[in-house]
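Entry details:
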Amino acid sequence: MSVATTDIAVASKGLVLIGADPIAAFDGSSRGAIVAEHIYDEAIEDILTDTPWSFATTQADLSHVSDTPESIWSDAWQKPTEALLIRRVTVNDKDIDYEVYADKVYCNYDENNILTMNYIFRALEQDWPPYFRYAAELKLASIFAMSVAGKPDMADTFQQQAEFALRKARSQDGQADTTHAITTSRFIIARR
């Protein structure tokens, strides 16, 4: 049994789950291939941006641009093209106020600062952990069950399985970093 490490393989597993034939390409050669070609990327990006997955989160320093805003903010910075969802923007490890307009991040920090952005990006299938890959296959199966097989009951069943698998995946992914200590000093002070 092979592990799905490409978009075609992940989509094929979702199709096989509903009893459809696997596909070799997003080429319109079958109903499954047509549906997968049109919904795959959008469905995966939706799942990726739903949670700050550790394998799909990164950070980058932003580049200052001369495209200054007309009001509210003093400076503009270029958002990375691969950023699907911004999680935070910092200067010297402190969160800052900002707004996003199109592909720019606007704030009141000039080029003398270093802005760092944490964001979700479109991780490649080969880099997905097993818990996420399985949840994505079930989510695709829920979509394919309706659009390829025309079976709403099957779609509901796969949707429930996908939601459970995603909850489990979030739990597993949440264990991927250091446990942070809870600051108790303000509670101790309040009790005095």
Residues 54-121 form one domain. The longest strand covers residues 83-91. The mean pLDDT is 93.
